[in-house]
Amino acid sequence: MIAVNNNLHQTFSREQWATLNKLENRSLHATELEKLKNIHQSISLAEVYAIYLPLASLINNYCNSTKKKPFILSITGSVSAGKSTSSQILQILLSSFPEPKNIALINTDGFLYPNATLEEKGIMNRKGFPESYDTVRLIQFLTEIKTGNSNVKAPLYSHELYDVIPDHQIHIHPSPDILILEGLHLLKPKTKNPKTKKWNTISDFLDFSIYIDAEEESLIDWFLVRFMSLRTAALQDPNSYFHIFSQKSEEECINMAKNTWHSINGKNLHEHILPTRQHANLILHKNSKHSVNEVTLLMVND
């Protein structure tokens, strides 16, 4: 087993981290391989074996040792860092251990205020910033999860529509063994009120947290690729938010995407997301090819 020690602070190179899987001696089954193939073309099986299998083993062992249920695992980092892909990979791997677990995955984009509300509040240009989320609703959701509610609902977001989908919800039933929570603003310091014992921030609910890190130049490149991919997919779909860009040239769209990064996503990263990196339990640092080249285990809290 991969040992989990309190107050551990250690950085592993990719090669060092990959050797941890040999301790577990885990291999992928055909069903896992098939599911992994459908996630994202940028993720190779070599990446899964070197990075995600040891990580899944670490989380599984920690989950078993703490005996917390539901166990909440958070995955955060910048826009375009690859949070969704990493979350889906871990969901597949954590579901495949000998002791079966029910793994739920929730993206906090669903807790953004609808675009109409953002317009009313005058903060549409700050979509993705902390104030654009219905944090009260998100904390209520996490409270229901933590207290073992067997039928919890979460709102659903569409990147194609660029909005929360009205009257659509994800039903989490039964109560999961592990909830993977993916989003931008998950690691603000804990502020549980010692008198009321109530949770005041999202991080109060987290049992293990992962921050996906990369140089900003890489993040910008990946954001441009994703933006143009959504534009291409929307060319024949007039219902897509990105269909409005079909009448613009590729150069115009790239310039608009760059402006969006520097005026919104980059500011959000430096002002609100990056400062919370130090509060993560584990940091996955990626190179320009979306491949993890370093893993830092910062801490494991009781």
What does this structure look like?
With 302 residues, the protein is an alpha/beta fold. It has one domain: P-loop containing nucleotide triphosphate hydrolases (Rossmann fold, 3-Layer(aba) Sandwich). It has eight helices and nine strands. Strands 1-9-8-7-2-6-3 form a seven-stranded mixed sheet. A hairpin with a 5-residue loop joins strand 8 and strand 9. Helix 1 packs across helix 3 and helix 3 crosses helix 4. It is globular. The N terminus is likely disordered.
Biggest sheet layout: 7 strands, mixed
Helical content (DSSP H or I, runs of 4+) = 25-40%
> Which architecture name does CATH use?
3-Layer(aba) Sandwich
Please give the order of strands in the largest beta sheet: 1-9-8-7-2-6-3
Oligomer: single chain
3D shape: globular
Question: What pattern of helices and strands is seen along the backbone?
Answer: EHHHEHEHHEEEEHHEE
The CATH topology turns out to be Rossmann fold
Strand content: 15-25%
Unreliable parts: 1-6
The CATH first-level class comes to Alpha Beta
Supply the helix-strand structural class: alpha/beta
Helices, by number, come to 8
CATH superfamily: P-loop containing nucleotide triphosphate hydrolases
Number of domains: 1
What is the number of strand segments?
9
Please state the CA-atom Rg, rounded to the nearest Å. Answer: 19 Å
The chain-level mean pLDDT equals: 88
Distance between the termini: 19 Å
